[in-house]
TrEMBL record:
PANTHER family: ABC TRANSPORTER ATP-BINDING PROTEIN (PTHR30482:SF17), HIGH-AFFINITY BRANCHED-CHAIN AMINO ACID TRANSPORT SYSTEM PERMEASE (PTHR30482). The keyword Protein biosynthesis does not apply. It holds the Pfam family BPD_transp_2. The chain crosses the membrane at residues 52-74, 80-100, 107-126, 132-153, 160-177, 207-224, 258-278, 284-301, 308-327, 333-356. It comes from Variovorax humicola. This is Branched-chain amino acid ABC transporter permease.
Length: 377
């Protein structure tokens, strides 16, 4: 009896240790450097992690509106960043949570509708005319709650059933917006929804609007990069790989998944607000089945396992959307998108970033200096 009780106590202690390690990684004190130098060490580690390509990309995105035409600044750059932010929400859900949702565009459209209803639009009968900042906060908050409710409904299923539930919710919202004239104004939707003027900066102009979308996109990207390294993100990835084991270790699998849907919904809501400011209107066609599938295509094109993949996929999608008609008829645009999507999936399941990484590995393995270094070592 004593031995069995000791074994049970040891098992409970082992689980407690594992929980502590997973939630709060153990940090061993460093004797080589005093405590005041630890922040500087952290900054030096961050600086060493910055590569030359990161600097080039940062310089490019900030200099882009000053060398590009207003069409490329607004139509290509701003639209790609806004769509990429919505695709980032799906990348976070699918790549790090293992949950593929087709309703991310629905959440974005819900935020856009709420902004039109609580703010100002062409329909003064329905729109309440609240200040833009109050309507913005309410719209994003309601969209986040809507995404959390959607997550609570769908996280109890897995695989194809999750996809079907999110698709059903998206289609239901589409028909609700199309047939309801009291709240959503039916198929006409809302128009004349413009970004505000703040500190004498007119965000309707291409360059200010581009920097507004760029700031939101960068904030969303770095937020996801930080979150996936935080205890919540690490636990979410563990749930993605083995939910039963994480449940046995004491983690609330349902709460983590619903929280992931809420985070993804917040990102999609911000992207939806930027898209309605970009288009100047919102209608049921914006949240239709085609728009929902387009977000999935964008995320898969760039790479579901990388936060930057959503933005790369959005750039490719927007470029094809604007210039594919020079090669084929406008009615055959979906055929071009489908062909590109099929080629990427066949040759690189990890999207364009996976294809790029594979090419880098091949070049690195074929380098004679790399081989000589290996022999020398």
């Amino acid at each position: 009896m004593n031995s069995s009780a000791a074994a049970a106590e040891a098992a409970r202690g082992g689980r407690a240790v594992r929980n502590a390690v997973l939630v709060h990684p153990v940090s061993t004190p460093s004797t080589s450097a005093p405590a005041p130098s630890q922040p500087w060490s952290r900054w030096r580690a961050m600086l060493r992690a910055i590569k030359w390509r990161h600097i080039l990309v940062t310089l490019f995105v900030f200099a882009y509106p000053f060398v590009a035409t207003p069409f490329f600044t607004f139509q290509i750059g701003a639209q790609s960043l806004a769509l990429g932010l919505i695709a980032l929400s799906l990348t976070f859900l699918g790549g790090y949570g293992g949950m593929v949702s087709l309703a991310q565009m629905t959440v974005a459209g819900f935020a856009a509708y709420m902004l039109a209803i609580f703010g100002t639009s062409s329909n003064a009968v329905i729109s309440l005319g609240w200040p833009w900042w109050l309507a913005l906060v309410v719209a994003i908050s309601l969209a986040t709650l809507f995404a959390a409710a959607l997550g609570w409904l769908s996280v109890r299923t897995e695989g194809i059933y999750t996809i079907m539930i999110t698709l059903a919710v998206g289609v239901a919202f589409f028909y609700l917006a199309q047939q309801n004239y009291t709240l959503f104004n039916g198929f006409q939707g809302f128009s004349k929804i413009a970004p505000p003027t703040l500190l004498e900066v007119n965000f309707r102009d291409p360059v200010p609007f581009y920097f507004l979308v760029l700031a939101c996109a960068m904030a969303g990207y770095f937020f996801v990069k930080h979150l996936i390294r935080a205890p919540f993100g690490i636990a979410l990835q563990g749930i993605r790989d083995n939910p039963r084991r994480m449940q046995a270790l004491g983690f609330n699998v349902t709460a983590h998944r619903v929280g992931a849907y809420a985070v993804a919904g917040f990102l999609a809501a911000v992207g939806g607000v930027l898209m309605v400011w970009y288009n100047g209107r919102i209608s049921p066609g914006t949240v239709g089945t085609g728009a929902m599938i387009n977000i999935l295509i964008i995320a898969v094109l760039g790479g579901m396992k990388h936060p930057i993949g959503g933005f790369i996929g959005a750039i490719v999608f927007v470029l094809l959307q604007n210039f594919a008609i020079d090669l084929v008829d406008r009615e055959r645009f979906n055929l071009v998108i489908g062909g590109v999507f099929l080629a990427i999936v066949l040759f690189s399941p990890d999207g364009l970033l996976g294809l790029w990484q594979g090419l880098r590995n091949r070049v690195g393995n074929a380098s004679p200096n790399r081989g000589a270094g290996r022999i020398h070592r």
